[in-house]
Specification:
OB fold (Dihydrolipoamide Acetyltransferase, E2P); Chloramphenicol Acetyltransferase; four-stranded antiparallel beta sheet; about 25% strand; globular
Length: about 425
């Protein structure tokens, strides 16, 4: 008997997921716990393992479709086994197709001939074209339902609509011939054809053909929504400090072998995490959130660490960071970053953050002004570490310098507290190695 594969719930607040990619094709053998498909939610992207061993008999949810949790997305079974009729996807599609049918029966007595042409576009207008195709159609006033699609399942592709527009442009070039019809009486036949040659050329290149349009990924959409919401929610203010990293460089060099023996490659990030924790303990307002007109102070320090991915950004959280030593911070941060890049995070890994750190310097930025990660009230941006000439005791010296920025919510954090917090971070980073 076939086994249903469902869209899993990747967290309490998650109600739907988007099918990003199928890792197996229909007819392929799949083992239990082997990655079967990849989904994207508003919290995390993840590869979903197969619930059982068997052959992939049927795929019910195509790539790019968003469905509710517990929706049957595929079926597994034995070779040659016939899949059970779809209980979720098929009826939904059938209901959409059948919905127009009752309406025409009511109108049949009045306008029986108008029913068929209305029914067909209703089924294909949205389902069989991408957002890119729909946008091109809108720009050129084209009804997609009249275009025969060459894509999978009759889907109208970008090539289809561009071909349709080009053909329409060619047909539109013909009317200029009748328009100069009065002129043939004066016998300037060659002149009558000149406009015909120019008219099609004016529309050979549809608007936007010199552009490449690509729909946003689910992750990109969620990032956009979250960032815009944050700017509308918090009164963003920024402070920047310059920090001498000489002592951190010495501490890192001294600990490199010890950390390597523990299986961890030590970077500069754990030192910033350590200093931020100290700053939060002295100024807990930086580890808070806003609930209406109430300030909520968080007891635990859960540090979010922004990780850049190939197609976006994700912020896994180091839980109870204030209870870890430097090695624990380094090991946990490295593990989360590695799992984020291989899509092995679970929803709990990206929830509950109270303060975020983002390292814009890893790509060479001197400093950045990051957007606050809601519902937090502050985020620290780390710039690149560069050797610069500085004045020390009225003498010029070369020191490794980093700029750190703090973006904070001025609704609850004042400039004085922000500067004091950064001063603590600076003090902790510049202190000599013990």
């Amino acid at each position: 008997m076939s086994i249903d594969v469902i869209m899993p719930q990747m967290g309490e607040s998650i109600a739907e997921g988007t099918m990003v990619k199928w890792l197996k094709n229909v007819g392929d053998r799949v083992e239990r716990d082997e990655p079967l498909f990849e989904i994207s939610t508003d919290k995390v992207d993840a590869e979903i393992p197969s619930p059982a061993s068997g052959v992939l008999l049927e795929i019910l949810v195509r790539e790019g479709e968003t469905v509710s949790i517990n929706t049957v997305v595929a079926r597994l079974g034995e070779p040659g086994e016939a899949p059970v009729p779809r209980p979720v996807t098929q009826p939904a599609a059938a209901a959409q197709a059948a919905a127009p049918a009752p309406a025409p029966t009511r109108e049949a007595a009045e306008a029986p001939r108008e029913v068929p042409p209305r029914a067909e576009p209703a089924v294909t207008r949205f389902v069989r074209s991408s957002p890119v195709v729909q946008k091109i159609a809108s720009e050129h006033g084209v009804d997609i339902s009249f275009i025969e699609g060459t894509g999978t399942g009759g889907r109208v592709t970008k090539k289809d609509i561009l071909r349709h527009i080009e053909q329409s442009a060619g047909m539109a070039g013909a009317p200029p011939a009748p328009s100069p019809a009065p002129r043939p009486q004066t016998a300037p036949a060659p002149q009558a054809r000149a406009p015909e040659a120019k008219a099609p050329q004016a529309r050979v290149f549809p608007a936007g053909e010199d552009e490449i349009r690509e729909p946003m990924s689910i992750m990109r959409k969620k990032i956009a929504e979250h960032m815009v919401m944050s700017k509308h929610t918090s009164a963003h203010v920024y402070s920047i400090f310059e920090i001498d990293m000489s002592n951190v460089v010495k501490r890192r060099d001294a600990l490199m072998e010890e950390f390597a023996s523990a299986g961890v490659k030590i970077t500069y990030l754990p030192f910033f995490m350590e200093s931020v924790i100290r700053g939060i303990k002295e100024y807990p307002i930086l580890n808070a959130s806003v609930d209406g007109d109430t300030i909520v102070y968080k007891k635990n320090v859960n540090l979010g660490i922004a990780v850049a991915l190939e197609n976006g950004l994700i912020v896994p959280v180091v839980k109870h960071a204030d209870q870890m030593n430097l090695l624990g911070l380094a090991k946990t941060a490295a593990d989360l970053a590695a799992r984020a890049r291989t899509k092995r995070l679970v929803p709990d890994d990206v929830q509950g953050g109270t303060f975020t750190i983002t390292n814009v310097g890893v790509f060479g930025s001197v400093f950045g002004l990051p957007i606050i990660n809601q519902p937090q009230v502050a985020i620290l941006g780390i710039g690149t570490i560069v050797k610069r000439p500085v004045v020390i005791d009225d003498m010029i010296a070369i020191r490794p310098i980093a700029h750190v920025s703090l973006s904070y919510d001025h609704r609850v954090v004042d400039g004085a507290d922000a500067s004091r917090f950064l001063a603590t971070v600076k003090r902790e980073l510049e202190r000599p190695a013990a």
